[in-house]
Every structure is written in structure tokens, then in C-alpha cells.
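Example 9 (inverse folding). The structure is encoded as follows.
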């Protein structure tokens, strides 16, 4: 009983400073569009993966979209860039809140009440490659023409302070490759201060912020791969060539203090040391061709997607030692992976009146009232570690150590105290 009393006395302070936890993983499945026939054979879908139950489900289908290219989470909503439209979705219900037409939309970023959207498509000319919208209703605030904004197709975005840094790559146009970092002042919505990354910095495909610098992974002029460093304080670029073959589309990510990347069509991953600006060899233990890489910030696990681009898609999860700990099937071409990180306190106090747990505290069997017959009940500890998953209305916690646990049903949580 003494252990339980200690746990209870510490609960207020522990719970107030509860750590963040991974609530769900959102996956954008780009689908399959046949450019020869102009037919969508597999639609764009948004999937949600629950890291506790390890269940994946499709939460929305974006009809009539040829592909999707980005997803960002902000507050209780997320925004999807899909071919010719931007969608605003509720983060919990996944219902569409608003949408706006934006042909050629590529990447998104949110700053306060503004949604920044880049645009571009191969061999397609637009009168504007940069838009800013209101995050609430997606009303257009400003469209930058090619005189006052980027002159060519623009893609990745990183926000640092009141500046949005943009990659201008001309949509990888063969023979007319560009490699430019542009700057959008978010305070007065003025664009300028473009910096050319040089002949070896063309075709940037990714933009990563680490420390006081930005890094781009470049396909050059399709003859090799390079990584450019852009010092934020001085706007000074430098580039290092790392391979005589291209990295392809999207297969790179920041992993701790390294950039993990893959050369197109190869099955090994490689590490690039940011601090030393040099390759440090292949990643041991992982041998598969991937489409998207993303590091989950709480556990540090690496999520890596694989696809044949027309019928299958899978996401693999690797721990810090590169051991596969789980995999789950998705839709076709899972190309963007985003992590919904929330306060543990915020998650566990949501809608707690939906069901009850008795007795609580308990040292044996607990009963759940108000649960649907087929709903999955998930029991975790304070660190989010899965202890039990069941459709029963009762759980025996007698063998568990004294402490605080959580019962989760369909995203609603209740605190349980084990004596």
C-alpha cells in the first residue's frame, strides 16, 4: 500500500509534466494515375496508423485527385496538398472542413494564420508558383506572380522564425534544371533574397533544417547526387557531391544528426554526417528499396515505405539498431508520413465521460461500462507501452506493478490506478 500512496502523491506533478506521445501516424497514399489513358486506377487515400493497437485504417479518399504530395498538421487540423486542391481536415474525425482549388500544389507550411503553398508541375507553366491562404477558411490572401515571386516551379518549404525558405527546382525539367533557395518574409509577405546553389546544387528534392543551417538533397543534372548546406545567418551555400547516381524522388530524411538517403533503385540506405559534411557508409541491417523515409521524433524509430506504384504499399518500422519491429500494409504509393504528436495529458483527458472504469483504484479485475460490443479496449502504461488489447469488458490488472495506467477506447482515455 505504501507504493501506491507514493504513486498517488506524485501523480499531480508527474501528470502535469507528462511527456508528449505519438497519437497516430498519418500516411498519404498517392494512388495510381495512368498518364497514358488519363484514368485514376487507384485513388488517393489518407490512412491512420495507431501505434498502440498497431492497426491501420483508411480514413479518407480524395476523389478525382491524380496524386497527393504533402500533408502538414497544425492544431486540431491537417492540410493536404493533392494535385489541384488543398484540403483542410479535422485531425480527430478526418472530416473535410474546407477545400480550395490550387492546380499544381506541391508542399505546404503553416505560420500563425497563414498557409503557405508552393506550386509546380513538369512542363506546365503557371502565372504564380507561390500562394498564401488563410488557415481558417482557405481564402487566398496573396498569389505571387513570376515578377514578385519565384519564376519557376517551387517545392519544399521550411519555416525559420518569420521566414519561409523555399526550394525552386523548376519541377525537374530536363535540360533546364534549377537549384535555388528563395525567402518569403511572413511578416509583410514579400519575396526575395534568392540564392543559387550552384551547378552541383540543381534539382533539390528535399529541404531539411538542422541547427543553424538548411540542407538540400539534390539530383544535380541527373548525373549524380549532392547535398547542399545553406547557412541561415549568412545565406551562404556549399555543396558536396556524394554519388554518381541520382537519389530519385523523396527518399531522404533527417535521422538524429545524419541525413539518411537512398540512391534510386538500390536496396541499401546511406548515412551522411551533417557535422562533417561527408558520407559515413551504408546503414547496416536494412536492405530494401524505399519510397519515403521519416523519423518519428518521440521514439526515434524510422518509418520507411515501399511500393510497386500500382497495386501495393507497405510501411516498415525500424528501431535505432535498424531492427524491423513492425510493418503494416497501406494504400498504393505511401509517399508522405506525418506524426501526430500530442501531450499525454491532453490525450488522456479527452471525452473521459464516454465510458467508466470500476473499481478505480483497483488491485485486481476492472470493469468497463459504456463500451461498444466490438470496440477494441487498449491498456497502456504511462509511457504508452501496450500491455493488453481486447474486445472484452473486463481486464485483470492483478499482476501489474502498482502505478498509473490508461484504458483507451476509440481515442478516448481513462486513467486507472493500480494499488
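The amino acid assigned to each position is listed next.
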Amino acid at each position: 500500500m505504501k507504493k501506491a500512496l507514493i504513486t498517488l502523491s506524485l501523480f499531480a506533478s508527474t501528470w502535469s509534466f507528462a511527456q508528449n506521445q505519438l497519437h497516430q501516424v498519418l500516411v498519404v497514399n498517392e494512388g495510381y494515375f495512368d498518364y497514358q489513358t488519363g484514368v485514376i486506377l487507384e485513388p488517393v487515400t489518407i490512412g491512420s496508423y495507431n501505434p498502440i493497437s498497431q492497426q491501420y485504417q483508411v480514413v479518407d479518399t480524395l476523389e478525382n485527385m491524380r496524386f497527393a504530395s504533402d500533408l502538414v498538421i497544425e492544431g486540431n487540423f491537417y492540410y493536404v496538398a493533392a494535385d489541384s486542391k488543398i484540403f483542410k481536415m479535422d485531425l480527430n474525425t478526418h472530416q473535410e472542413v474546407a477545400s480550395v482549388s490550387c492546380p499544381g500544389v506541391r508542399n505546404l507550411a503553416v505560420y500563425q494564420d497563414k498557409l503557405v503553398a508552393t506550386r509546380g508541375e513538369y512542363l506546365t507553366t503557371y502565372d504564380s508558383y507561390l500562394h498564401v491562404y488563410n488557415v481558417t477558411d482557405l481564402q487566398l490572401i496573396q498569389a505571387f506572380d513570376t515578377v514578385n515571386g519565384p519564376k519557376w516551379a517551387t517545392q519544399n518549404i521550411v519555416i525559420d522564425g518569420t521566414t519561409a525558405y523555399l526550394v525552386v527546382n523548376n519541377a525537374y525539367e530536363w535540360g533546364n534544371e534549377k537549384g535555388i533557395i528563395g525567402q518569403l518574409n511572413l511578416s509583410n509577405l514579400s519575396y526575395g533574397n534568392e540564392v543559387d546553389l550552384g551547378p552541383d546544387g540543381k534539382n533539390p528534392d528535399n529541404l531539411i533544417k538542422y541547427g543553424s543551417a538548411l540542407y538540400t538533397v539534390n539530383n544535380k543534372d541527373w548525373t549524380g547526387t549532392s547535398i547542399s548546406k545553406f547557412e541561415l545567418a549568412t545565406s551562404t551555400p556549399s555543396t558536396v557531391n556524394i554519388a554518381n547516381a541520382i537519389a530519385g524522388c523523396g527518399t531522404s530524411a533527417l535521422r538524429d544528426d545524419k541525413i539518411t538517403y537512398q540512391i534510386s533503385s538500390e536496396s541499401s540506405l546511406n548515412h551522411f554526417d551533417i557535422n562533417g559534411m561527408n558520407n559515413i557508409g551504408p546503414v547496416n541491417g536494412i536492405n530494401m528499396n524505399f519510397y519515403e523515409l521519416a523519423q518519428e521524433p518521440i521514439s526515434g524509430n524510422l518509418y520507411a515505405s515501399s511500393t510497386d506504384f500500382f497495386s501495393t504499399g507497405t510501411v516498415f518500422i525500424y528501431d535505432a539498431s535498424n531492427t524491423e519491429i513492425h510493418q503494416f500494409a497501406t494504400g498504393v504509393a505511401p509517399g508522405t508520413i506525418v506524426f501526430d504528436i500530442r501531450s499525454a495529458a491532453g490525450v488522456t483527458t479527452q471525452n473521459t465521460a464516454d465510458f467508466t472504469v470500476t473499481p478505480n483504484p483497483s488491485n485486481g479485475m476492472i470493469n468497463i461500462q459504456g463500451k461498444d460490443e466490438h470496440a477494441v479496449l487498449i491498456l497502456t502504461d504511462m509511457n504508452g507501452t501496450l500491455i493488453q488489447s481486447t474486445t472484452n469488458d473486463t481486464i485483470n490488472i492483478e499482476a501489474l506493478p502498482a502505478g498509473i495506467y490508461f484504458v483507451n477506447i476509440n481515442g478516448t482515455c481513462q486513467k486507472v490506478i493500480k494499488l
